[in-house]
Design goal:
This protein is α+β, with helices and mostly antiparallel strands. The chain is built from twelve helices and 20 strands.
C-alpha cells in the first residue's frame, strides 16, 4: 500500500496510523502514538518531521517507507488532530485538513475531506497525494450498488469531454459503487448566490451573466447532442462557477439519464423543484433538452435579478395547483433588475425576450432546437460588446446636440 512520506509531531508525540500490507483486508490499520526523543524545537505544535528523523527515532517494528529504506511495516497517513485524538487530519499543501475517511479506489488512495453538494447524494471532495508531486483534488461519489449504479457508471463513461468531470477510477466495495471523477476548482453557484444575497459580492453585470449562461448552454447542448444525455437536475448546488477563466461547469450527474431513457426515469430521483421544468415534475414523458433549457433559464433569471422567476416558485409555477394563478405572471428581468433596466432599450428588450422564452411553462413555447437557443444567446451576448443602436428619435436628438456643440466650438 502506498503511504505518505511525512509524519508529524503533536505536543511532543508522534501520532499516525499504521497499515499491515500483508493483512487479509488491505485497509486494516490501528492508531499508534510513539513518544520519540525529538529535539525540543520539534515538540511545539504540529511540525513536519523529515524521513531521516523518522528513520533515526522510530523503532524497527513500525512501518515506514522513506527513500530506499524499508521497514517490515509501513507507517503512514495522517497525524491526529490536536484537539480530538479520534479525529484524523492530513497536511495538504501547507494546510491541515480534517479527514472524514479514506478510500482505496482502483490505483488511487483518497482522503475524503469534505462532503459536498446536495444532502441527497454521497459526494466528497477528496485528495490523492500520489498522482503528482503536490497531489491532486478529486470528487468521490458513492452510489448504492444495483441497476441504477450500473446506469450511472455507463453514463460517466460517456462524458469524454473537457466540459464535464471525467471518470478516473471506480470499484465496488461494501455494497456500493465508488466513482472518482476530476475536481472542478471554484465555488458552487448556490454559495455564490448566498454571497450575493448577503452583500458580500456585487451584483452580477448583465453582460457577464449572459456570457456565463451562453457557455453553460453550449455545454448542455453538447451533452444532449454528442453524449445523448439529459442532465435533469441543473440547479445552483450542481453548478460550479470557476475563475481564470470564469465559466459555469456541471458537476452532479446523479439524476442524469440517456435521452432514450429520460421518459422512464424511476421515482425517487432528486431534484430542486424551483429549478426543474414543470413537465418533469408532472411525471409525463419529457423532452430532456427542453427540460434542461428551462433549468438553465432559471439560472439566467437569478443571475440577472437575484430572484427566482414566477414570484419565487420557479418550475413549481407550472404545477396544477399554481397554474391558474401564475399563467402570464412572469415579471421580466428589466422590471426587477436595475442593471438590466439601465441597458439600451433594444438590448433590454432582447434580454427580456430571451429569458421569457426559455422560462415558458409550456415546453412547446421554448426554443425547439439547440441552434435557435444558442443563436439567440450569442446574439444577445454580442450586443453587449457593440455600440447600442439608436431609435430615429434618439438619432435626431444626437444630431441636434452635435450641431449645437459645433456652433459653440471656436474655429
Amino acid at each position: 500500500m502506498s503511504c505518505s512520506q511525512t509524519l508529524f509531531v503533536t505536543g511532543g508525540t508522534l501520532r499516525g496510523r499504521m497499515t499491515d500490507p500483508s493483512a487479509s483486508h488491505p485497509e486494516s490499520h490501528e492508531l499508534f502514538e510513539y513518544p520519540p526523543r525529538f529535539p525540543a524545537n520539534l515538540q511545539q505544535d504540529s511540525r513536519q518531521v523529515s524521513g531521516i528523523s523518522v528513520q533515526r527515532h522510530l523503532r524497527s517494528h513500525f512501518v515506514a517507507k522513506f527513500g530506499q529504506t524499508t521497514y517490515p511495516w509501513s507507517t503512514c497517513m495522517w497525524p491526529v488532530d490536536r484537539t480530538s485524538p479520534d479525529q484524523p487530519t492530513v497536511w495538504i499543501r501547507g494546510r491541515e485538513r480534517t479527514v472524514l475517511g479514506r478510500r482505496r479506489i482502483g490505483r488511487g488512495d483518497y482522503f475524503l475531506l469534505e462532503r459536498i453538494g446536495s444532502a441527497r447524494r454521497e459526494r466528497y471532495m477528496a485528495f490523492d497525494r500520489n498522482t503528482s508531486p503536490g497531489g491532486d483534488f478529486f470528487q468521490v461519489q458513492i452510489f448504492p450498488d444495483g441497476p441504477a449504479a450500473e446506469h450511472q457508471l455507463r453514463l460517466f463513461r460517456r462524458l469524454k469531454d473537457d466540459s464535464f468531470p471525467r471518470i478516473h477510477q471506480w470499484h465496488r466495495h461494501g455494497g456500493n459503487l465508488e466513482v472518482v471523477t476530476s475536481w472542478v476548482e471554484g465555488i458552487s453557484l448556490a454559495e455564490y448566490f448566498k454571497h450575493l444575497r448577503e452583500g458580500r459580492r456585487p451584483a452580477v453585470d448583465p453582460g457577464h451573466a449572459v456570457r456565463l449562461i451562453y457557455g453553460l448552454a453550449n455545454a448542455v447542448s453538447k451533452l444532449h447532442h454528442k453524449q445523448q444525455v439529459a442532465h435533469g437536475d441543473i440547479q445552483p448546488a450542481n453548478v460550479i462557477i470557476t475563475s481564470h477563466p470564469s465559466r459555469l461547469v456541471l458537476i452532479d450527474f446523479g439524476s442524469a439519464w440517456t435521452t432514450q431513457s429520460t421518459v422512464d426515469r424511476p421515482d425517487g430521483d432528486g431534484y430542486n423543484l424551483c429549478y426543474t421544468a414543470p413537465e418533469l415534475q408532472s411525471g409525463l414523458p419529457t423532452n430532456g433538452f427542453l427540460a434542461d433549457q428551462f433549468s438553465v433559464s432559471v439560472l439566467l433569471y437569478e443571475l440577472l435579478t437575484g430572484k427566482t422567476p414566477y414570484g419565487g416558485l420557479g418550475g413549481k409555477a407550472g404545477r396544477p395547483e399554481f397554474a391558474a394563478k401564475t399563467r402570464n405572471s412572469l415579471v421580466p428581468p428589466s422590471a426587477t433588475s436595475s442593471g438590466v433596466r439601465g441597458l439600451p432599450r433594444s438590448l433590454r428588450e432582447s434580454v427580456d425576450r430571451l429569458a421569457a422564452r426559455g422560462l415558458a411553462l409550456d415546453p412547446n413555447q421554448r426554443y425547439p432546437q439547440r441552434h435557435a437557443w444558442l443563436d439567440d444567446l450569442y446574439q444577445v451576448s454580442t450586443q453587449f460588446r457593440i455600440p447600442p443602436r439608436l431609435t430615429h428619435g434618439e438619432e435626431f436628438l444626437t444630431r441636434v446636440i452635435h450641431w449645437f456643440a459645433a456652433l459653440r466650438t471656436p474655429r
